[in-house]
Amino acid sequence: SLENLSLFYQYYLFSNAKIIIAQHGAALSNVIFMKKNSYVIEIISQDKIDEGEDTFKNLSKICNLNYYSIQTKN
Questions:
Q1: How buried is residue 28: exposed, middle or buried, by Cβ count under 10 Å (0-12/13-18/19+)?
Q2: Which of 2, 27, 37, 67 could be joined to 60 by an S-S link, Cβ 3.0–4.6 Å?
């Protein structure tokens, strides 16, 4: 859980990570701190995908990250 960590420590974690696996949510915004060609694996419900939710996929693309998703059933 990142919510109790300082912004600096969140930056430190993400900027040094080669792979991030996380549930869909605001914490994934920290991918902007990752180095190019790192990996982002988002766990996201099929409902969100059906609604057109692709925020972190697009953010990863803009940041030159390798994005993958694991889709869960409702």
A1: buried
A2: 67
Q: What would the pLDDT profile of 19-61 be if each residue is shown by its tens digit? A: 999 999 999 999 999 999 999 999 999 998 888 889 999 999 9
Please name the helix (run of DSSP H) or strand (run of DSSP E) that holds residue 62, with its range, or none. Answer: helix 55-62
Cα-Cα-Cα-Cα torsion 49, 18, 36, 21, nearest 10 degrees, comes to 10
pTM: 0.90
Question: DSSP letter at 6?
Answer: -
Rounded distance between C-alpha atoms, residue 45 and residue 31, angstroms = 19
Q: State how far the Cα of 44 lies from the Cα of 13, in Å rounded to an integer.
A: 22
Rounded to whole angstroms, the Cα distance separating 53 from 49 reads 5
